[in-house]
């Protein structure tokens, strides 16, 4: 299936919807360990990875991102599998490419914060460079349409990632910062300013992903939008963060006061309606590159893609409570069950 290029689509003002959040979804399903968060599913259960890519495409993702997030040398070392690094990366790229090609979707390579970067220590900067270089060089052998560099806490590490994508990959770059509680990068640059600098340095898309939920990420994205000229990326986590608890790491379980991160986050998950409202606001704001990060699942993706006008295949099975035997419309409701539920959904039909 032929497809138009990433830059061409952005230049034409098209929106790009992207499913992320593989890490948390596989952790939830029992294929990735919380803590180290290494994508071992790629090596051990490749069919599960293929199936989740298919599921996200079905739900409307325009992009298949190779699941190489935290599949880098420093992270593989944590679980003693550094010797499988190359195998993991090629397997992730090949599976993503297969699904992307099959459906005519964009294929993205992925790099991320290295977790070993320390701007005061030149040795770690060089190590980060070599981590980026090898993952980028592997990705471009599979003809990725662009490379995503994501969840960077430091401006310096994000800039290094961008430089590496340009130097070793020569493909379009999407760079997103981790949306911290302070609105600042770890090395003290206001995130909107950091985004503007990366745009000037040649990033095709800049923005934020992870940590903040839709409600608390939106004000930050509005500030980014004010200072950037090009496409802005917004990929919140799918949790109901608040002004008091603006990130998923800060969230507590309602009524208990205990931290929800990471394993109890489902207790503070966004509703589908909240995701719909977020998508509508982002679209109205002109957010051109939109997605969902940790906590994402295909039922959320379908709503986001639908609001963005993608008419995902999964819409075939979007909710229609008219057909319900007790809550449905006159044609479908069986009046024998009228007294089954005291609560009626007449004014609250799921759409
Ligand atoms: Zn995330």
UniProtKB/TrEMBL annotation:
S-adenosyl-L-methionine found in the keyword field: no
UniProt superkingdom: Eukaryota
EC number of this enzyme: 2.1.1.5
Enzyme superclass (EC): transferase
Pathway(s) this gene product operates in, as recorded in its UniProt entry: Amino-acid biosynthesis; L-methionine biosynthesis via de novo pathway
Cofactor(s), names only, from the UniProt record: Zn(2+)
Protein residues bound to Zn(2+): 210, 293-294
Cofactor binding notes: Binds 1 zinc ion per subunit.
MF terms in GO: betaine-homocysteine S-methyltransferase activity; zinc ion binding
A Pfam family this chain is assigned to: S-methyl_trans
PROSITE patterns: HCY
Listed PANTHER family: SLR1189 PROTEIN (PTHR11103:SF18)
Protein name: Betaine-homocysteine S-methyltransferase
UniProt organism field: Mytilus galloprovincialis (Mediterranean mussel)
UniProt lineage: Eukaryota, Metazoa, Spiralia, Lophotrochozoa, Mollusca
